[in-house]
Structure formats: C-alpha cells, structure tokens
Amino acid sequence: MSTGHIPITSSELATLWIIYQKKTMMVRVIESFLSHNQDPEATEILKTFYEGESNFVNELSKLFKQEGAAVPIGFTENDVNLHAPQLFDDIYEVMYLRTMMKIASGLHALHITMSYRKDITDLYKRCSAFAEDIYEKTTQFLLSKGVLPKSPAVTLPNHVEFAESKDYRSGFKITGHRRSLNTVEVAYLYQAIEVNVDGMKLMTGFAQVAKIKDIRKHFFRGKELSKTIITKSSEILLDSDINPPSTPAGRVTDSTMSPFSDKLMIYNTSLLSSFGLGSDAIGTSFSLRKDLPLKMIPIVKDIFDFANEGGDLMIQHGLMEEPPPMEDRTQLSKGQGK
Question: pTM here?
C-alpha cells in the first residue's frame, strides 16, 4: 500500500459490492434486450445505457483489484441466453429500464451518504447523474409513445391553509365527511401503482420461463402480490374520484424459453421487493389520513414476507453470493479463522 493511501471502510466495501451486483445484472438484462429490440429510438436508449453501465462495471472491477479485494462474481455471460426468443415487447423493455433507474437513483444517493473517500463519492455522483439521464430519456420516450399515464391534474391553490380540526387526519367514515386525498398522498399511491404494474408484468414473464419449480411459484406469488397492491391503491384513489393510472402497453410474449438464469431473475425480484418496501414505508409515513397506513401496513408485511421467501430460495438453491464478511473475532481467537 502506497504512502497516503486511504483504505476503504466496511460500508464503502458493502456499497461497492451491492452496486457491482446490480450493475452486472443490468448489463446482462440489457444485453438480452438489445439482441432483439426493433424500435430504433428504444434501441438507442438501451445501447447508451449498456455502454455506460459496462464502463461502470469495468471501473468497479479495477477498484476492487486496486484495493486488494476479491472481485465479486455478480452476473456473467452464463446468466443470459441471447438465443432465447423475446420475452417482453420493445415498449416494456423501456418501461423496465425506467423502473430500474428509479431504484438506481435512490441507491446511489444513499450510498453517497455512506461513503467517505472522495473518489468513491465522486463515482456515486457520476452513477447517479447517469441513472437520472437514462430515467429522463426513458420517460420522454414513453410519453412520446403515449403509453405513460401521468398523475392527475389538480387545481392549483391560491392561498395557504392550516388544518384546524383533528378530522383532517381521520379517514374513518362513520359519521360526517371524510376528506379527499391530498396531493402528497396521491403522489405515493400513483408511484405504488405505476411500479407494480411494471412489476406484475415482469413477474408474469419470469413465471413463464423459470426452470426451478419453487422459484417459478415465487414469481407467480409476486405477480399476485403486485395485483393486490394495484387493486387496493386504485380503490383508495377511486374513493376520492381519482382515476388510477392505466396503460395497455408493455406486453409479455408467449415464450417459455428463458433469456435469463433463475439466479438473475430472483435477484432482480429481490431488488424490486426492497424498493417496494422502502417506497411504501415512505409513502405511509407521509400520509396524514389515519386510515391509509392501516390499509397499507398489511401490504408492507406481505412484501416483507415475499422478500424473505426469495432470500430463502436463493440460499436453498445456491444462488446467493455472500457479501464481504466482517472478521469473526470469536473464531479468530480460537484459531479457527478462514
């Protein structure tokens, strides 16, 4: 180690490991999409992402080696079958990338706050800027195709009001009037529906092609869970005379040959579950109507149980790569360290 070199901390190693897993997965997924996507504009977006993400993977690999740490396996060419038929149509592939950029933006922002070394925080800033750029490109593409429903229009307030009664927080319509949703509550409900529409289609495709029976059942359960979240969130919106978002675009084909390994698909599902837990928890915390958290908490529990089941399946089938461990001091003191 050269003089003045600052070793990476445990939290920095952890975040780099997490990002390496996610980015190697994304490279393989988009590699598959590029092998058959026929829309010129969509292909250009996918290609731009593939090249940028591949560069980040190479940079991360060099960083691990530079620090003397083992380079994670992540996801390799063995996790993708470029000869498999198209599983999702051209439009859905862009929808998928847009959703994954939501996750990436949140992860990079969090990881900046967990890092200390300037080169690592600078790396996450570049990763974040790249994810935000791709998110913007995918959003504008889907809007131009007329397949991305926006949240509802609203009459802009011309003055500021303060809640003057506890009834503002009450959502239980036993007697009297239950207030309509506010814009903050609508925003998070819309987010939940939008992400779960994409997730439902992803789980549908994964369930069609997974090779391992109990993992296939897991994906089917994920599809049903997404449908439940969409239904319950839509009912809350409709109760305030707000139309839930809906789009007929984004189709799963009838292919039963998997373009991805079961390992890749269940890891991808785990990422979405983690994102769902985080966003639903935040949405619930920002709700000021007491009935909404009571309706959403059972959903958060279902997502948590689903994520736990996925983790168990990954271990059961030898699909989980272990994160870098901390030293086991008890074992070391017994002379039993690795």
Answer: 0.91
Instruction: Report how far apart, in Å, the C-alpha atoms of 113 and of each of 45, 117, 224, 324 are.
Output: 29, 11, 35, 20
How open is the CA angle 177-178-184, to the nearest 5 degrees? 145
Euclidean distance between CA atoms 260 and 99, whole angstroms: 18
Return all residues near 102 (Cβ < 8 A) that are at least 6 apart: 135, 195, 275
Q: What is the pLDDT of residues 319-336, one digit of tens each?
A: 999 988 877 667 767 775
Name residue 255's amino acid.
Answer: S
Rounded to an integer, what distance in angstroms lies between the CA atom of residue 150 and that of residue 208? 30
Q: Report the candidate in 56, 59, 67 with the shortest Cα–Cα distance to residue 8.
A: 67
DSSP conformation class of 167: G
Q: Rounded distance, CA 227 to CA 224, Å?
A: 5
Length of the chain: 338
Of the candidate ranges 5-19, 69-83, 123-137, 293-307, the one whose mean pLDDT is the lowest: 293-307
Per-residue confidence (pLDDT) for residue 325, from 0 to 100: 82
b/e burial code for range 243-267 (CB count within 10 A of at least 16 → b): ebbebebbebeeeeebbbbbbbbbb
pLDDT in tens, 259-270: 999 999 999 999
The closest alpha carbon to 194, from 142, 155, 260, 241, belongs to 142
